[in-house]
Amino acid sequence: MNSGMTQSGRAKSGLIRRVAVLGAGTMGSRIAGHIANAGVPVLLLDMLPQGTAADAPEARRNRLAIAAIEDLKRSKPGALFTSETARLIVPGNFEDDLPRLADCDWVIEAVAENLEIKKALLTRVSAVCAGQAILTTNTSGLPVSEVAAGLPETQRRRFFGTHFFNPPRYMRLVEIIATRESDVDAVAAIAHFCDLRLGKTVVRANDTPNFIANRIGTFAMLNAVRLMIEQDLTIEEVDALTGAVIGWPKTGTFRLADLVGIDVLAHVADNFYSQSERIEDERRDVTLPAFLREMLRRGWLGDKTGHGFYKKAGLDAEGREIRLALDWKTLEYRPVKKANFPTLDLLKGVEPVTARLVQLMAASSTKDMAAAFHWPFLTELFTYAANRLAPKLHPIAATAPDIDAAMRTGFNWELGPFEMFDAVDVRETTDRMRSTGRPISPNVERLLAAGRSWYREDRSVSSGRSCFDPLSNEYGLVAVAEDTLSFAAARRERAPVRGNPGASVVDLGDGIAGIELHSKMNALGDDIVSLITQTLRVGSREVADFEGFVISGAGVNFSAGANLMQLLLLMQDSEWDEIDLAVRAFQRMTQAIKFCPRPVVVAPYGMCLGGGTEIALHASARRAHCELYMGLVETGVGLIPAGGGSKEMLLRALECGPVNGRGDELTVFEALKWRFEAIGKAKVSSSAADAKMLGYLGQGDVITMNRDRLLAEAKRTGRELADTGYAPPQPRMAIPAPGTSVLATLRAGAWMMRQAEYISDHDLTVANWAAHVLCGGNVAPGTLMTEEYLLDLEREAFLSLCGEEKTRERIAFTLKTGKPLRN
After folding, report:
1. What's the whole-number average pLDDT of the chain?
2. Number of Cβ within a 10 Å radius of residue 60
3. Contact at 8 Å (CB) between 406 and 202?
4. One-letter-per-residue 3-state SS of 575-620
5. How many other CB atoms are found less than 10 A from the CB of residue 501?
6. Residues 6+ apart with CB under 8 A from 631
């Protein structure tokens, strides 16, 4: 939750033109990488390699930072939006390059989690930093005021903590920890920069051990370990109980520890307990167990060492990965055993998570094994979180929403602990806790004296919620960042204009309407197709009432593409006429988007596959979130793009614009080959920047870093288009066909791929149809075509491939496994 932003702080955030990161380890280098993702130059410094001669060349002296940058390029998942991003990171070392900090506006210290090492480096840094530079530490839990203790008074005012979470590109949380001396405007400037430029959720944390997310998260993980030992559960069982069923990542507890590093978990825990003596009501019984200490002694640190709570053991006879799990009693590995909890099986498919939590807590009154774990685990979490608020002597945050936001964005929980508590009914759960002798937080007693839940609906504020504050014993508004917008907020202001189970038209204000996709995975079925077509067609009521439109959604992904189950059922029943009608309807939808009299802005994010990409390709403009995994993936299921996607890729190739991100001018053939490969290989972008390189986004399409700002910025784009006298494009009536000569070349390339056994026979069939459409069919080069003719070619290819048994096999396999089949 962003709060406390001043106008002067916002202005100063624009002065952050160059950043330095001190420490090129895993965390420091990835912070530098994400700042470069934002287009900001970064100086990355580390120690001089041991034994380096005084006259050694620069590359040798900067070897540690250079190696870190190379590692960023190779990292999986990718730390950089594209490999080109690395050019913004300049390597250096502490001996030669500290004077260069004078040119930096923000200096981030990210060296080892050792108080003395940090203080010694910062003493050297303070002598060379510019007077207006902001200096922060990326400590994960050391007292920020102690880190600052050796700095001059003037620099202590411009010093505070900025705790990024790993990996910084993907984890949205940044905790900002100000000291009593920190300048308000300096803190506001960095908060705004992290929000707007880095796409972060900024939460203000108090200077207490491990701050917010690590404090709550480490307690939850170690309490899960404690209950595992107490209830004699297995590693796999605890991961099942602490995963998706309660709205937490499917990694659960132990798989998460392997990913993060068991040494990191131990360090955070030890760091806290070394400082916790002065903290009242701390759960000192929740500590690292003996078996985990032994794992550390053996060097079993998780994925980084290949040994953790799980490990890989090669492949079986069918090529599937063999995974072993640790028996925590014997410290021996054995084959992974699937957890067997009837309650969890019954909850599969139950949505949303609030409904699952209610059923879990209801089961806790039975002798169910899962409930025997969840009842103490969740209620102790609720009490622990409530006890971390004021009026305790050492509250970790100012408000419950701050803690909830930290856990959602730092640990990827669907709900924070206070939101989870509300979901299961605070009063009812507390009454049961009291009847069984469980401790009740004094803050919960204060809450129940004033109301029934932590949050309550409040239509008077933009967030739509207020939250109980135990310090004032009153409800206060839940703030949202300025210049943000959500479909939920718009619906609170005005009732939807039109809607069905798949999508709704919502008045976003200022003459712009939003088309919100809200089916499961935003799969594009008949309901979405019909609503978009009816809304955007010439003469519709909405076109008359609004001056622009935005198509987006509020879920995790923009769209997983067309509804494959619907298509497979039609194929199995040989309903070819129905399939033809469905494809025609989809094409009418994308044409309605393209030729709508009002500007249509598509705001894609997350997965934007197949038909989702085709929707975006036909928009007047695209405002994309930086984390965009976009692609025409139809060939993966034995089909080709037939909703106008192939047509649009051809039209873009004929424009010969730079599509590879480097501004290279391409010939028509090169541009067409580029896009043929994107379609044929079902290429999916690794980011919005990569989507530009693949040609799915145009070079003029703008990228938004913060997901919370995407809808507001897309609306602004629509408003700007409308205000500048938007005129829709006209259907192309004289498109020159690449023709048979280019078609032969593309088919020859596909044939050579088959001969080299890079692709299968069916891949070759699909590729030949894709080439056929992209070249305008078997016509002479230069033959003039219409857009309607190209849509006919798409349908012909699509229907032919629907008749292939291998296409049906691919679709069925993908629906079952979520993976492509190469048959």
Report:
1. 93
2. 14
3. no
4. CHHHHHHHHHHHHHHHHHHHHCCCCEEECCCEEEECHHHHHHHCCC
5. 12
6. 608, 609, 610, 613, 678, 682, 683, 684, 685, 694, 696
Tens of pLDDT along 470-509? Answer: 999 999 999 888 889 999 999 998 999 999 999 999 999 9
Q: Are 395 and 208 in contact (CB under 8 A)?
A: yes
Which pLDDT tens digit goes with each residue over 336-359?
999 999 999 999 889 999 999 999
pLDDT-above-90 percentage for the chain: 85
Is pLDDT at 461 greater than 80 in this prediction?
no
What secondary structure does DSSP assign to 747-768, as a single string? HHHHHHHHHTTSS-HHHHHHHH
Two tokens, residue 784:
């003039």
Cα separation, 287 vs 270, whole angstroms: 9
**Tokens linked to 227:** 């209950």
Written as six digits, the tokens of 204 are 């203000």
What one-character DSSP code corresponds to residue 47? P
Q: Where are the beta strands (DSSP E) in 94-196?
A: 106-109, 134-137, 159-164, 173-177
Helix-strand-coil split of the chain, %, nearest 5? 45, 15, 40
Q: Is 132 exposed, middle or buried (0-12, 13-18, 19+ CB in 10 A)?
A: exposed
In single-letter form, the type of residue at position 99 comes to P
Would you call 54 exposed, middle or buried from its count of C-beta atoms within 10 A (0-12, 13-18, 19+)?
A: exposed
Stated as kind and residue range, the H or E segment containing 333 is: strand 332-335
Residue 518: which residues within 8 A CB-CB, separation 6 or more? 502, 503, 504, 553, 554, 555
Distance CA 822, CA 635 (A): 10
Contact criterion met (CB below 8 Å) for 240 and 254:
no
The pair of structure tokens assigned to 620 is: 């007047």
Tokens of 740: 């048979």
CB-CB contact of 601 with 620 (8 Å):
yes
pLDDT number for residue 371: 87
Question: Is residue 44 very low, low, confident or very high in pLDDT (cuts 50, 70, 90)?
Answer: very high
Phi, psi of 251 (to 5 degrees): -65, -20
